[in-house]
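Design review, sub-item: ligand-bound model
Attendees: FS, YL, KQ
YL presented the inputs for the NAP complex:
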Amino acid sequence: MEHEHTDSVRTGRRRRVLITGAGGQLGRALQDVFSEDDLVALAREDWDVTSPPSDTVSQGKFDLVLHTAAWTDVDGAETDPEAAAAANVGGTANVAGLGAPLVAFSSDYVFDGRKGEPYVESDRPNPLSAYGRTKLHGEATADSDAWVVRSSWLFGATGHNFVRTMLRLGAEREEVAVVDDQRGCPTFVGHLAVGVRELVDGERARGIWHVAAGGDCTWAELAEAIFVDAGIACRVRRISTEELGRPAPRPAHAILRSEREGAPVLPHWREGLRACLEQLGR
Ligand SMILES: NC(=O)c1ccc[n+]([C@@H]2O[C@H](COP(=O)([O-])OP(=O)(O)OC[C@H]3O[C@@H](n4cnc5c(N)ncnc54)[C@H](OP(=O)(O)O)[C@@H]3O)[C@@H](O)[C@H]2O)c1
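KQ shared the predicted structure:
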């Protein structure tokens, strides 16, 4: 299976790439970045990954699978951990079962955030939430022969994400209350997709890779940057995680960095924010 995807280059045929969760924010960004490949982009209505693939998909002879389909409702996973696991563990098993070279996506939420410095690939995970546990279990299910890409605080011009929520709230209110005691690396999906292409095309070894934006900030700092860059006059009131009172515990300090040679280096999160706002026409 190793380097199978390069066979298409040797034979001159376009690489056949399957994207799961194609309606999600990362799924869409990957379609843009892998647009020169022979893409089969399946949204949830085309393949709900909690079920085995159709015959057409299982016989698809894919050179590469980019598996983004996932249960991403972190708080919802606390009330329905079985459904979250069905998607993030069972779904990943179904996708890995295709037997094609696989990129599976995971999260900074596999860590507890107590290390006090950035997390590298060899650090021991200890998820605090049901979502984090399903992602960690999903990593193991992806198979040791997959690229497991852990990233963090994703945002893009489509879908549900913090940047789009702040743009909406900032237009409606004079002040928003935002958590200031969780620190992470807000990562633009367009930049992550380029990093993924680098891993695959550069024929990097399989296994876990941390691929997240440069720099780090709190959610409140990110909100302030959004309002400055988008020219929105809305104040940010800094609050604590406890004050917000969300159901799922989240790591307080989960900054992802790579210790692996040849790891993709993504632009700083401020650059990602600018690129996202530009795509939104702001
Ligand atoms: N978002 C983040 O901050 C973040 C951070 C780190 C890692 N990640 C990981 O990165 C990957 C991509 O995340 P994202 O931000 O692009 O998420 P997203 O925007 O929520 O996209 C996920 C997509 O998967 C679909 N989906 C959910 N359950 C499915 C199922 N059973 N079968 C098929 N499709 C299903 C969703 O469809 P519906 O919309 O219809 O549910 C959605 O289109 C995921 O593995 C996620 O865990 C995300």
